[in-house]
Amino acid sequence: MIALTLPIGRSRRAGHDVLISTFNLNGTLATAQLASDVLGVVNPLRAYLRSLAVAVPVSAALAALLSFLLAGRLLKPLERLTRAAAAIGKGGNLRAALPGADRGDEVGRLAGVLQTSFGQVAEVREREETFTYAAAHDLRSPLTAMKTRLQGALSGPRSETELREELTEVLSDLERMRRLSEQLLLLARGERDIVRRPLDLARLAGEAVDRARELAPDLSLEFATSGVAWISGDEGLLSPLLDNLIGNSLRYGGGAAMQMTVTGTPSGVALSMADSGPGVPAAALSHLTTAFYQVGAARSGQGNGLGLAIAQRVAQLHGARLDLALAQPSGLRVTVTFPQATNAD
What is the CATH topology of the domain spanning 106-187? Predict the structure, then answer.
């Protein structure tokens, strides 16, 4: 109960905040009294804040603990994958299986990508090892021959004729090494080494045919062109490609007739080199562009198994496609298809 005779102003009575004020009501002095139970609002609010003060830290700690446990569970496969990848890097076995590659989640996809990448690196490394071994073999042969000839020339008296013969053989070995070194450099060329400009492939092919005929006047080599044969390319790389295609047919075609054609179409320019020689076994077609590969022959003589490997590399650098097929009724056909380019003139 709140007395009605309280003084004007704000006061605390019976657990209530009481506000009393006077005002004029139609010429009559009146008194207004307002009582409010603030504690009924404040006390629940205080209780709520106290509960928050306890619940929020507990909830945050619980959430942190659950997050830690969940993260640990999720990161365990990633940790195993990391350790396995590190072990592969140290051990060098790039074809070893990675844990989690069979999973269907993000970790599994990551393991699959890593395993595929490691496999590709292993394949490149194996090719490089084979290539290095074969290159060392081909370089060692002329070096050994040169050493033997020079030791023979220095072992005792030699006539001028004998010395000239020895030096001629040494020069022949040096020339073989020079050609091999140039071919190895061609195989090592990268995209950044290409200087592209519009070129008439028919003109370049005709010049290559003329060079071959000058070296071998009795060469049975026909040449034909049709259509527009402009491509975008590097003449310094395309000339060795043409020379190697002709040289490959000349070397392994058994002296049979050969034909080079250049055909321009709206979709591209096709360069074809075919011979009517003995050809190769069908099973060997997929290996002919492998460096130092030779069909059924020891690695000797003038050839070194790099001609078609260089042609394949030059084609790749120009965005072209190289196809090998058995000619009919016999022989081998090599076709390189280039993207068409607009005549710069």
Answer: Helix Hairpins (1.10.287)
Q: Who has greater pLDDT, 176 or 195?
A: 195
- What contacts 326, CB < 8 A, 6 or more positions away? 279, 280, 282, 285, 332, 333
Query: What is the per-residue pLDDT across 119-173, written as a single tens digit (0 to 9) for each?
Result: 777 776 776 676 666 667 667 777 887 888 788 878 878 888 888 888 888 888 8
CA-wise closest residue to 334 among 315, 211, 345, 342: 315
Pairing between β-strand 230-233 and β-strand 197-200 as defined by DSSP bridges: antiparallel
Give the list of residues 6+ apart from residue 176 with CB closer than 8 angstroms, or none.
142, 302
pTM of the model: 0.56
Assign a CATH topology to domain 195-338.
Heat Shock Protein 90 (3.30.565)
Q: In what order do the strands lie in the sheet with 221-226?
A: 221-226, 258-265, 268-275, 332-338, 321-326
Let me know: does 224 contact 259? Beta carbons within 8 Å: yes
> What is the enclosing helix (H) or strand (E) of 231?
strand 230-233
Tens-place pLDDT, residues 124-135:
677 667 666 666
Instruction: Give residue limits of the domains in the chain.
Output: 9-37, 106-187, 195-338
Q: What is the 3-state secondary structure (H, E, C) of 190-218?
A: CHHHCCCEEEEHHHHHHHHHHHHHHHCCC
Cβ atoms of residues 260 and 222 within 8 Å: yes
State the DSSP string of 142-163: HHHHHHHHHHHHHSS---HHHH
Return the CA Rg of the chain: 44
